[in-house]
Design brief:
The complex is a heterodimer of chains A (378) and B (270). By secondary structure, chain A is mainly alpha-helical. Chain A contains 15 helices and two strands. Chain A has two domains: 152 residues, no CATH class; 199 residues, MetI-like fold, CATH 1.10.3720.10. Chain A is flat and about 85 Å long. In chain B, strand 8 and strand 9 form a beta hairpin. The chains are: A mainly alpha (378), B alpha/beta (270).
Chain lengths: 378, 270
């Protein structure tokens, strides 16, 4: 029966095979899995039992069987612990620990199988659907941690996620102050001003035809200026504090919003415009009732592009002069002081802030453009 | 081309009055004569169909009446004034070839759109929308979005939207052209009832002979290159007609007359 199951699914077959070999090979110069302190076997056994249980239960899958996937998820997490515990105990497998790396490889194949089982279920709840991305993310960070620590990669090249986590936990006050300075002040102010002015100018350009011919070429010229060129100038104009960073962001975000809004309000169909004309609707009535709703997908596109541009702009601009706070300042100074863990901690905060900012607009887009063919549900 | 209506003097009770109306797109060699010397009177309460092959100017003529195109020659009066005045007075409702509903508005709010633009008070416009959505048989669909409805239902929403502000004149540009024949027949019957109940003047563009004959009290046969009126056929279909009427001799005779007029205008030539 196990044979049939294994033939049907190569990743579980590889898991079983590799795990069997891994447990016999050395994990480091000092011995194999069984010569380590007994705690490890106590960890490995339950993981293997749950893994075996889930593989047995996955024999006759229907689109509704959730149990094998859930068991496989638990087994993956349990089986991920022994290698971590070894590292924690000061064992460094390096190139000698073939058993150690085979174990990790076998675990990889099992995680693969677990994700397969999890995504097999259709029409599951939201929490269940989050399990696959969670497992994927965990696996990514786990592999990073195990490889960097297991091979003793120098911290200056790449710190392990655990080290970065410790840096974040230990410097929450500094990171929060940097976030306040860069995101809450510079990014938000610059983003609102840049997107707002881009939108208003788009309406003006639409209303006044000569602006379209005069302003657009100028605008594309300005948008082509590299950020490292304007940042020092903005620092000279607006000082060291967040205002100069906001100015850089305004320059960066203005043009994408202008172009997208213009394209969007031009998108209304001839028939829909004739309809408004047949009602004797004014320019602003047509704009508000027809052209702006049609432009919404374009405007949200610009907001999403600008949400990432704004953070990049603020961080890069801080390299050119800043008070002694801010994410860009932190990265540039901590690199100089070889505190790479703090650099990575700041990068992590920036990534989290940036993707949350983007996510907010992606969510708003779904809410406001529910009627668009790409989102509508019959 | 002799035209029985040319002799009649411009009369105030005529809803549409066109004299020597012309419209040329472009200039010189590439000029397109979309309308050439069109004379037409449409009286109050008539159901007038424009029929002819593509490029005969039937839609253009309707768009001139609606002030969506400006004529380059001749005169046209709508309700005794200029088409622009009629448009600004919201004297007509226009139903397009496609429903042209706004996908972000529900059925109810689509029908409300012209009334909101006109600044009608809330109670009255809700009442109107309820009345006309009922009249086109769409009660219970108010909260749906257009893309949740079939093509025929969408076009009925657009008819309700055009009726909502109670214009005297309804301009319909091939409103059922994109629908299947069964739906089209069904909507034709409904349209006859609607016309009889509301006593509106309807101008209807079509390229279907049965549709024109079934619906109209006056059929305007047009031909292309240059776009012109070939013949105007007055007919008096029985008021209580159903689709079965299309199998009677009366119907077939009128249909034959329309076809002869189209042939005389070289509409069947290559």
């Amino acid at each position: 029966m196990i044979g049939v199951m294994i033939c049907r699914d190569p990743s579980s077959a590889l898991f079983v095979g590799l795990m069997a070999i891994a447990l016999l090979l050395p994990v480091s110069e000092s011995g194999n899995w069984f010569s380590q302190s007994g705690g490890n076997l106590l960890l490995i056994l339950p993981a293997l039992i749950v893994a075996g249980w889930s593989l047995l239960r996955s024999n006759d899958l229907t689109a509704q069987t959730k149990l094998p996937g859930l068991l496989a998820f638990v087994a993956t997490v349990l089986a991920a612990l022994p290698p971590l515990v070894l590292l924690e105990n000061g064992v460094q497998p390096g190139f000698e620990g073939s058993g150690y790396w085979l174990f990790v490889l076998a675990l990889g194949f099992f995680a693969w199988r677990a994700m397969g089982l999890l995504s097999h279920v259709i029409r599951a709840g939201r929490a269940y659907q989050l399990l696959v991305p969670t497992l994927f993310g965990l696996w990514f960070f786990y592999l990073w941690e195990v490889v960097v620590t297991g091979f003793g990669v120098p911290q200056i090249l790449l710190p392990a996620p655990g080290v970065i986590g410790v840096a974040i936990g230990g410097h929450l006050d500094i990171l929060w102050a940097d976030f306040q300075q860069t995101f809450m002040k510079a990014v938000l102010a610059g983003f609102v001003m840049g997107c707002g002015s881009g939108f208003v100018v788009a309406i003006l350009v639409d209303r006044v035809p000569f602006l379209q011919r005069g302003l657009l070429p100028l605008g594309s010229l300005v948008s082509a200026i590299p950020i490292v060129g304007i940042a020092p100038i903005m620092v000279m104009w607006f000082g060291f504090d967040w205002q100069s960073k906001a100015a850089v962001i305004v320059v960066m975000t203005f043009f994408p919003m202008l172009i997208n809004t213009l394209a969007g309000i031009d998108e209304a169909g001839a028939m829909e415009k004739d309809l408004m004309q047949s009602y004797g609707a004014s320019y602003f009535q047509t704009l508000i009732s027809l052209r702006l709703p049609v432009a919404l997908p374009f405007i949200f596109n610009a907001l999403k592009i600008n949400s990432t541009l704004a953070l990049i702009g603020a961080i890069v601009a801080e390299f050119f002069g800043t008070p002694i706070v801010g994410m860009g300042f932190r990265i540039s100074t901590e690199v100089g002081r070889m505190n790479v863990d703090m650099v990575w901690a700041t990068i992590a905060v920036a990534a989290l802030a940036g993707s949350t900012f983007y996510g907010v607009f992606a969510l708003l887009e779904r809410i406001f453009t529910f009627w668009h063919p790409s989102y509508r549900q019959q | 081309m002799s035209n029985p209506d040319t002799a009649a003097p411009a009369s105030a009770k005529n809803v549409v009055e066109a004299r020597k109306l012309s419209l040329v797109f472009g200039e010189g060699e590439s000029a397109v004569h979309a309308l050439n010397n069109v004379d037409l009177s449409i009286e109050d309460g008539e159901f007038v169909s424009f029929i002819g092959p593509s490029g005969c100017g039937k839609t253009t003529l309707m768009r001139v009446i609606a002030d969506l195109e400006k004529p380059t020659g001749g005169e046209i009066m709508v309700h005794g004034g200029t088409p622009e005045q009629a448009r600004l007075d919201r004297a007509y409702g226009y139903v397009f070839q496609a429903p042209a509903l706004y996908p972000w508005r529900t059925v109810r709010r689509n029908a409300l759109l012209p009334l909101e633009l006109m600044g009608m008070n809330k109670a009255l416009r809700e009442e109107r929308v309820a009345k006309y959505l009922g009249l086109v048989g769409l009660e219970g669909f108010e909260k749906k979005f257009p893309w949740q409805l079939s093509g025929g239902m969408q076009q009925r929403v657009s008819i309700a939207r055009a009726l909502g502000f109670e214009p005297d004149l309804l301009l319909m540009d091939e409103p059922f052209g994109a629908l299947d024949e069964i739906t089209r027949d069904h909507l034709n019957e409904q349209l006859i009832h609607l016309w009889q109940e509301t006593k509106k003047t309807v101008v209807f563009v079509t390229h279907s002979i049965p549709e024109a004959v079934f619906l109209s009290t006056k059929i305007v046969v047009m031909s292309p290159r240059p776009g012109r009126i070939n013949k105007i056929i007055n007919c008096s279909p029985p008021p209580d007609r159903t689709l079965d009427w299309r199998e009677t001799n009366d119907f077939l005779e009128v249909a034959h007359e329309v076809r002869e007029a189209l042939r005389a205008g070289h509409s069947y030539d290559d």
